[in-house]
Write a structure and sequence with these properties.
The protein is an alpha+beta fold and about 300 residues long. It has seven helices and 14 strands. α2 packs across α3. The radius of gyration is 23 Å and the shape is elongated.
Length: about 300
């Protein structure tokens, strides 16, 4: 076992009180700093404070120390180590924000850290720093750029749609046909910053050009009728999730035979369309600081922040 360390430091041209207030909103419903929806959001089982348990994505931790406005120390769950964020005043209008990570890892874990986890970790930390500047100062002079490796890793770890029963809230889909021969549904979490209008998600069908046959404030229904079968595709955005549902009605033996072939590839295509759209909309979303306004935005004060890596 050897110790792995990583440190990021940035000087922000804003007071420690302003930046500290932003740090204390990490993991909240209106978190202005964590870079969701491009990365899984930071979530806890209670408001930020000692004992709060949660994490982001597959990284799990709990709050071990909380000095409001100055320091949050997280202890990893299930592995030896910790990470923390601190805010140190440098004067009335400047402060230093630091993020430190340390933990003991096996050889295999160290290889995984250097090859995959560290590039993503460094990007997430720098994007948090970018959001601090956006929220506290109003702009970022040199925002972090995601490298090709980070973009690939982000694509590979993107969550997969999970199969669910067609939700009762998908009323248009349930009422589509008096008799249904097939139905299924695939669902994903609606990360902070993703659109809540179903029309935004209907773009996953742009190549097929299916007509819209029904619409409510949270569901859009597309479909097409043919001699052998009729189908409807429902996009429902409700209860913090987006659901892609399908209902099919066949007309005769030929339709049943045709759909017997189609249904073998249908789940693959449905998952692929929903996952691609989920990621595409996340990459196009505004930053957390832009969405929330930061709660402390004001004009730049002195020289713009600079980034250091130790």
């Amino acid at each position: 076992m050897r110790t792995v360390r990583d440190v990021h430091v940035r000087t922000i041209p804003a007071s420690a009180d302003v930046v500290g207030a932003l740090i204390d909103r990490l993991g909240s419903d209106r978190d202005p700093l964590f870079p969701a929806p491009v990365w899984p959001p930071m979530r806890f089982d209670r408001p930020l404070g000692v004992g709060a348990d949660g994490g982001h994505g597959f990284v799990r931790y709990r709050v071990a120390v909380h000095e409001p406005g100055r320091r949050i120390h997280f202890a990893f769950t299930g592995m030896d180590g910790w990470h923390e964020v601190t805010v140190s005043p440098l004067g009335p209008d400047r402060c230093r924000v630091a993020h430190r990570t340390e933990g003991r890892r096996t050889l295999r874990q160290r290889l995984l850290w250097h090859l995959a986890i560290r590039p993503m970790h460094c990007t997430v930390v720098e994007e948090i720093f970018d959001n601090i500047e956006r929220a506290a100062v109003g702009r970022v002079p040199a925002p972090v750029r995601r490298t090709p490796r980070v973009r690939l890793l982000n694509r590979l770890i993107w969550e997969r749609p999970r199969p669910v029963a067609l939700p009762a809230a998908a009323e248009l889909a349930h009422r589509a046909f008096p008799r249904t021969d097939f139905r299924d549904a695939w669902q994903m979490e609606l990360r902070p910053g993703l659109p809540t209008e179903p029309d935004a998600w209907a773009g996953m069908f742009h190549r097929a050009s299916f007509p819209v046959v029904g619409r409510t404030d949270r569901e859009i229904l597309l479909g097409q009728d043919a001699r052998h079968l009729d189908f409807r595709a429902s996009v429902l955005v409700a209860d913090g999730r987006v659901t892609l549902g399908t209902v099919v009605r066949t007309h005769h033996a030929g339709g049943r035979l045709h759909f017997a072939v189609v249904r073998r590839v249908h789940p693959v295509m449905a998952r692929l369309m929903l996952r691609r759209t989920h990621r595409r909309l996340a990459l196009a979303a505004s930053s957390a600081a832009e969405r929330e306004g930061g709660g402390g935005t004001f004009p730049a004060l002195q020289a713009w922040g600079r980034t250091e890596r130790v």
